[in-house]
């Protein structure tokens, strides 16, 4: 099955392989050890970003909070599922990928096309409401709903996690 990923970087070519990244060796030693223990293969580009030792801006803070909560919850209760920090987020159609392009308010991007049999369907709407509802009950319920693949009834935002490595089979412009 084909999947479509909106990518900000335009240097990729057809047949390139998206593979795991490692943190720089001059990173915080405790962070390196943590990542080696929890992500021995390495990290996706998104995982690299969210695992780095940074202080997110106030605009990014809720995204960072949600991602960290989802990853900790996955490690504790859904370790059989792929980490968001080791996957690429995709859509099942060009139309859905274009939706994400608009949601992310990107200036430029293209669509990377992958073929994969290892797919995991989730609803990003649960991720988006986690940081806005930080009671212990809400966080656990929303994270559980996300990892169980429950679809958010009001306004679903379907995403597919495709674990790395992935070969690019096509690259499409966004119109």
Set down the secondary structure blueprint.
Blueprint: E1 2-7, E2 17-18, H1 29-38, H2 45-51, H3 61-77, E3 87-90, H4 94-104, E4 110-115, E5 120-123, H5 124-130, H6 136-147, E6 158-163, E7 166-173
Antiparallel strand pairs: 1-4, 2-7, 3-6, 4-7, 5-6
Quick take:
The chain has helices spanning about 30-40, 45-50, 60-75, 95-105, 125-130, 135-145; strands at about 1-5, 15-20, 85-90, 110-115, 120-125, 160-165, 165-175. It has about 180 residues and is an alpha+beta fold.
Radius of gyration: 16 Å
Number of helices: 6
Cα-to-Cα separation, first versus last residue? 23 Å
Shape: globular
Structural class: alpha+beta
Order of helices and strands: EEHHHEHEEHHEE
Strand order of the largest sheet: 1-4-7-2
What is the number of beta strands?
7
The largest pleated sheet is described as: 4 strands, antiparallel
Share of helical residues: 25-40%
Oligomeric grouping of the chains = single chain
Considering the chains and any ligands shown, give keywords for the structure.
175 residues; alpha+beta; three-stranded antiparallel beta sheet; 7 strands
What does this structure look like?
The chain has 175 residues and is α+β, with helices and mostly antiparallel strands. 37% of the residues lie in helices and 21% in strands. The strands form 2 sheets. The chain has a 4-stranded antiparallel beta sheet with strand order 1-4-7-2. A 3-stranded antiparallel beta sheet has the order 3-6-5. Helix 3 (61-77) crosses helix 5, helix 3 crosses helix 6 (136-147) and helix 5 runs antiparallel to helix 6. It is globular, with a radius of gyration of 16 Å.
């Amino acid at each position: 099955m084909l999947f479509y990923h909106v990518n900000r970087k335009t240097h990729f070519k057809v047949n390139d392989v998206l593979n795991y990244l490692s943190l720089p060796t001059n990173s915080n030693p405790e962070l390196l050890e943590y990542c080696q223990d929890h992500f021995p293969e390495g990290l996706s580009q998104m995982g690299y970003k969210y695992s780095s030792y940074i202080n997110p801006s106030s605009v990014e803070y809720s995204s960072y909070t949600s991602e960290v909560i989802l990853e900790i919850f996955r490690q504790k209760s859904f370790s059989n599922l792929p980490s968001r920090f080791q996957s690429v987020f995709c859509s099942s159609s060009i139309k859905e990928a274009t939706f994400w392009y608009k949601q992310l308010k990107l200036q430029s991007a293209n669509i990377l096309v992958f073929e994969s049999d290892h797919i995991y369907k989730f609803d990003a709407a649960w991720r988006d409401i986690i940081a806005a509802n930080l009671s212990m009950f809400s966080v656990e319920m929303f994270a559980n709903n996300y990892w169980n693949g429950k679809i958010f009834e009001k306004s679903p935002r379907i995403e597919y996690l495709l674990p790395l490595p992935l070969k690019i089979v096509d690259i499409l412009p966004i119109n």
